[in-house]
Specification:
By secondary structure, the protein is low in regular secondary structure. About 10% of the residues lie in helices and about 10% in strands.
């Protein structure tokens, strides 16, 4: 519901137009008819409107024109603004958590201090915009134009999806991009001084000429990133994930051979093969472990980033401190597995089995996610009865339909 009362008490800004509450409600109703293809529909046009501190939470504003609108301090959380025009809009300190801005035009928009945690910004345009400003004396009769880059200073974009976003020249100093998806994003010449990019996926991103002075990029994924002429002074690159090796050898055996021996051990109930007991293995050269039988695997601090592990059997495995960010673990059997301090941001765990593993009469081992990061992970329909999530990061995790009966959760 739109909080039209907010407009009654809001003082109009000097360079924005006053919005009548009744007219706004009618315009929003007409926009819903427009989106539904019904008679009387009209696309929402609120260019240069004063919408400061209003509530548009959860409202469907697809394709709306909000050019130059003032939305500072507004609540737009979970609203749908896909393909909307927010050219030059003022979104300072707005609550934009989980908002859908897919393919939105945000050129020249100011989002200083806005909260965009978990927002959908894939393909959005945050490049420089040519902003029209009213003359102080003659108002909108005389407009002057100013080139202004999209601003994200001090904004929170943790867990946001910025895949393929156009952000060349964007200003995002001291912004929080923790665990954000920036794969394929264009950030040429962007100002990212002191920004936090810990755990961010920058696969294939273009950071040519960007200023990352003093930025934190711990555990960031830098596979295929262009960093030509980028400034990296005092940038923390601890534990960054670069391109995987073409093949991974263990004691003169290829990883494929070692994994086949482990699977043979599982299939023969220990009669043949050998259990894999190794740490810090990069499994990415294998690309997929889909439906493989790998129960009891011991591979702490290993890398499974972005891999297809659908239906894999990892019962009782030791996967502590492993990197499963963005991995497909749908329908995987993870009963009794140890994921302490593991990274599972954006992992797909839909339908996964994460309940207790029986190891004898009245004896069970629980699946352990203590201190694991599940930011933005999808656990819908998973079975996690009695699982441990102590000190786990669950921001933005989807748990609808997940069986958490008896689970240890810190609420």
């Amino acid at each position: 519901m739109v909080n039209v009362q907010a407009f009654m008490s809001t003082q109009p800004q000097q360079h924005h137009l006053t919005v009548d509450a009744h007219a706004l409600k009618e315009a929003l109703d007409a926009h819903q008819r427009y989106l539904a293809g019904r008679s009387g529909g009209r696309r929402l046009n609120l260019t240069y409107a004063d919408l400061a501190n209003c509530s548009l939470e959860g409202v469907d504003l697809r394709d709306a024109d909000l050019t130059g609108a003032c939305l500072s301090g507004a609540t737009i959380a979970r609203a749908n603004l896909s393909r909307a025009i927010l050219f030059g809009a003022d979104l300072r300190e707005a609550d934009m958590r989980h908002v859908n801005l897919k393919r939105a035009d945000l050129r020249g928009a100011c989002m200083r201090g806005a909260n965009l945690a978990g927002a959908e910004l894939a393909g959005c345009d945050l490049r420089e915009g040519r902003i029209a400003l009213q003359d102080k004396l003659d108002g909108f009769r005389i407009l002057r134009h100013e080139h202004r880059p999209g601003e994200l200073n001090y904004a929170v974009l943790s867990g946001a999806n910025l895949q393929g976003a156009q952000m060349s020249g964007a200003v995002a100093m001291t912004s929080d991009f923790t665990d954000a998806n920036l794969s394929g994003a264009i950030l040429t010449g962007a100002k990212l001084m002191r920004a936090v990019l810990d755990g961010a996926d920058l696969s294939g991103a273009d950071l040519g000429g960007a200023d990352l002075t003093g930025a934190s990029m711990k555990r960031a994924v830098l596979n295929g990133v262009n960093l030509n002429q980028a400034r990296l002074d005092d940038c923390d690159l601890t534990g960054v994930l670069r391109a995987p090796p073409p093949i991974f050898y263990i004691d003169d055996k290829s990883l494929t051979e070692v994994m086949a021996e482990h699977e043979q051990f599982c299939d023969s109930n220990g009669g043949k093969g050998v259990v894999m007991k190794l740490s810090e293995v990069d499994f990415r050269p294998m690309k997929t472990l889909k439906r493989r039988r790998l129960s009891g695997l011991i591979a702490p601090r290993s890398i499974f980033f972005g891999m297809d592990l659908e239906g894999v059997q990892l019962q009782g495995a030791d996967l502590s401190a492993c990197d499963f960010r963005g991995a497909n673990l749908r329908e995987a059997d993870l009963r009794g597995a140890r994921f302490t301090s593991a990274q599972l941001a954006r992992a797909d765990l839909r339908g996964a089995k994460m309940g207790p593993l029986a190891i004898g009469e009245n004896r069970f081992v629980r699946t352990d996610f203590t201190r694991a990061s599940l930011r933005g992970a999808d656990l819908r329909g998973a079975h996690a009865a009695r699982a441990r999530f102590l000190e786990a990061e669950m921001d933005g995790a989807r748990v609808a339909g997940c069986d958490l009966s008896g689970a240890e959760l810190e609420i």
